[in-house]
Amino acid sequence: MRKLKVTEMGRMSVAEYRASDKQPIVVVLDHVRSLYNVGSVFRSSDAFRIACVVLCGITACPPHPEIHKTALGAEESVDWKYFERTEDAVCWLKEQGYTVLAIEQCEGSTMLQDFQRQPEVRYAIVLGNEVKGVQQEVVDMCDGCLEIPQYGTKHSLNVSVAAGIVLWYMSRKELQRG
What we know:
Elements: H1 14-19, E1 23-30, H2 35-47, E2 50-56, H3 65-71, H4 74-77, E3 80-83, H5 86-95, E4 98-103, E5 110-111, E6 122-128, H6 136-141, E7 144-147, H7 159-177
Parallel strand pairs: 1-2, 1-6, 2-3, 4-6, 4-7, 5-7
Helix pairs in contact: 2-3, 2-7
C-alpha cells in the first residue's frame, strides 16, 4: 500500500467548494471555549460538505490563528454565522425550516445509531460547551436530542470528536449517493 499524495486526491479548490451543493445540515456551537475545537469543527464540516457553522456566545469567530491551526483553511471554505445568544440562533434556524437536534444526554434522547435521517429534512445539530454541554434552555428549544453511545467510564466526548462522529453518521448515505 502507498499513501496518496494530496495532488492525487482530486480535492476541490476553495472556490469550487463554495460553489458546490452542500448538505442541508448546520452545526451550532453553543459557548464552545476552545479555539482548537472550533477549528476542528470547521475542518469536519468541510470534509462532509456541511452548509454552515453557527457560532454562539463565547465561541470565537474566524479569522483567528488558533482556529486556523486546526481548521487548516476550512474556516475560509465553510460558511459561518455568529449569534450572541444560542437561543436566537435556534429561533433563526427554526424560522428557516430546520429541525434542531441537541447532541446531548437527555431523558428521551435518541441513540445516534437509531436515528434515521429523512432526506427532505434540513437539520441543525447543537453541540455544547466543553464542561457544561448544551445549555438546558437551548435543549428545551430543540426538536429532539441525539446521544452518542459510550461504553467506558467517561460520560462525554470532546466536542470536536462528537461533531465528527455525528456529521459522519448523518452524512454517510447522502455523500455516497452524490
